[in-house]
Amino acid sequence: MEIFSKILEGLGYKKVIGILDSNKEKICKQLNRQHKNYRYITIPEEDIRDKSIQNKNISGICLKICILKEECKEEIRNIFQQINGYFNS
């Protein structure tokens, strides 16, 4: 994400949103400090969708068939409101 941010800054992008998994909170905070004009946020789960990797189950905001989980809908709605507010400011 850091490399993409630098590239986008070099290309002159003024407003950028980066969306990271919940287990990347530390990186998210660091990016927000380093790139004051950009906004980085995390989703409420470890991944965008449920999956198993190397015998570990990873919880996502969507089911494997790309349907948003009911328990994540309100938080995702809030994230989109933040994004809209950022781009409309």
Tally of domains: 1
What is the H/E order? HEHEEEEEH
Shape: globular
By DSSP, the count of extended strands is 6
Main sheet specs: 2 strands, parallel
Kindly estimate the percentage of residues that lie in beta strands according to DSSP: 15-25%
Average pLDDT, to the nearest integer? 90
Q: Could you tell me how far the N terminus lies from the C terminus, measured between alpha carbons in angstroms?
A: 23 Å
Which structural class is indicated by helix and strand composition? Answer: alpha/beta
The helix count comes to 3
Cross-sheet strand order for the largest sheet: 1-2
Provide the low-confidence segments as ranges: none
Spatial extent as radius of gyration = 15 Å
Give the proportion of residues in helices: 25-40%
Task: Explain what the structure shows.
By secondary structure, the chain is of the alpha/beta class. It has one domain (2-72). The protein has helices spanning 2-10, 25-34, 73-88; strands at residues 17-20, 39-42, 47-49, 51-53, 56-58, 60-62. It has a two-stranded parallel sheet. A two-stranded parallel ribbon has the order 3-6. Strands 4-5 form a two-stranded antiparallel sheet. A hairpin with a 2-residue loop joins strand 4 and strand 5 (56-58). The longest helix is centred in the last third of the chain and has 16 residues, at 73-88.
Question: Nutshell version of this structure?
Answer:
With 89 residues, the chain is α/β, with parallel strands linked by helices.
Descriptors for this entry?
39% helix; 89 residues; 6 strands; globular; 22% strand
